[in-house]
């Protein structure tokens, strides 16, 4: 049975705004910022582990999100470690990582994990959007959005409504919405 209220574990206000805009009134979303340890592993392993830890921390239903940027030339790296690569290298450094490769294609990947609460196995909802890595264009206030281009525009150049119709986050949340509706 789908929860009426769900704790979305994030400290990122931009992610919260996007998730609320895409989910609409599907579920009553409550935001909680909890500093969770993140293991190393695959996208799915990291998301499931983070979800288990969050469910224990809040003692109730939780939704966690993990966003990745996967460079195809680098066999999907930096992947789930994009946050650390971006902090260390900046947008120009991420571009420089692909300087020696003709393939600039990439995937934006968003993985949501839901758990009913402690002891319940997380359910994974993943969305992927294919694009390419380009020199930064547009506002630089939301992570790597300025360097990920989809059909001629970077995420940063798109208005929020446009991005929320095609993004990796949208694709993952559409799966979550379908599941939530089927569980009611």
TrEMBL record:
Top-level taxon in the UniProt lineage: Eukaryota
Protein family: Belongs to the HAM1 NTPase family.
Keyword Nucleotide-binding part of the UniProt annotation: yes
Cofactor binding, note field: Binds 1 divalent metal cation per subunit; can use either Mg(2+) or Mn(2+).
GO cellular component: cytoplasm; nucleus
Organism: Hyphodiscus hymeniophilus
Protein task: Pyrophosphatase that hydrolyzes the non-canonical purine nucleotides inosine triphosphate (ITP), deoxyinosine triphosphate (dITP) as well as 2'-deoxy-N-6-hydroxylaminopurine triphosphate (dHAPTP) and xanthosine 5'-triphosphate (XTP) to their respective monophosphate derivatives. The enzyme does not distinguish between the deoxy- and ribose forms. Probably excludes non-canonical purines from RNA and DNA precursor pools, thus preventing their incorporation into RNA and DNA and avoiding chromosomal lesions. Pyrophosphatase that hydrolyzes non-canonical purine nucleotides such as inosine triphosphate (ITP), deoxyinosine triphosphate (dITP) or xanthosine 5'-triphosphate (XTP) to their respective monophosphate derivatives. The enzyme does not distinguish between the deoxy- and ribose forms. Probably excludes non-canonical purines from RNA and DNA precursor pools, thus preventing their incorporation into RNA and DNA and avoiding chromosomal lesions.
Gene3D superfamilies in the record: 3.90.950.10
The name this protein goes by in its record: Inosine triphosphate pyrophosphatase
Sample GO molecular function, one term: metal ion binding
Swiss-Prot/TrEMBL catalytic activity: XTP + H2O = XMP + diphosphate + H(+); N(6)-hydroxy-dATP + H2O = N(6)-hydroxy-dAMP + diphosphate + H(+); ITP + H2O = IMP + diphosphate + H(+); dITP + H2O = dIMP + diphosphate + H(+)
Amino-acid positions noted as binding ITP in the UniProt annotation, renumbered to this chain: 10-15, 50, 66-67, 142-145, 163, 168-169
Binding-site positions, Mg(2+): 38, 66
Cofactor(s) it depends on: Mg(2+); Mn(2+)
Record SUPFAM superfamilies: ITPase-like
This enzyme's EC code(s): 3.6.1.66
Keywords, ordered alphabetically: Cytoplasm, Hydrolase, Magnesium, Manganese, Metal-binding, Nucleotide metabolism, Nucleotide-binding, Nucleus
Subunit structure: Homodimer.
Subcellular location: Cytoplasm; Nucleus
Pfam families per record: Ham1p_like
Swiss-Prot/TrEMBL GO biological process terms: deoxyribonucleoside triphosphate catabolic process; nucleotide metabolic process
């Amino acid at each position: 049975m789908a929860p009426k209220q769900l704790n979305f574990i994030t400290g990122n206000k931009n992610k919260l705004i996007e998730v609320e805009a895409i989910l609409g009134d599907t579920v009553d979303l409550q935001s909680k910022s909890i500093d969770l340890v993140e293991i190393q592993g695959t996208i799915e392993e990291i998301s499931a582990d983070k979800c288990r830890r969050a469910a224990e921390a809040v003692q109730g239903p939780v939704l966690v999100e993990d966003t990745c940027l996967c460079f195809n030339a680098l066999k999907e790296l930096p992947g789930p470690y994009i946050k650390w690569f971006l902090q260390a290298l900046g947008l120009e450094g991420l571009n420089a990582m692909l300087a020696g490769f003709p393939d600039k294609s990439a995937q934006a990947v968003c993985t949501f994990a839901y758990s009913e609460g402690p002891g319940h196995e997380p359910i994974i909802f993943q969305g992927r959007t294919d694009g390419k890595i380009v020199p930064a264009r547009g506002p630089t206030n939301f992570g790597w959005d300025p360097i990920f281009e989809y059909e001629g525009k970077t995420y940063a150049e798109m208005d929020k409504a446009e991005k929320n119709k095609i993004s990796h986050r949208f694709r993952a949340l559409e799966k979550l919405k379908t599941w939530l509706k089927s569980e009611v």
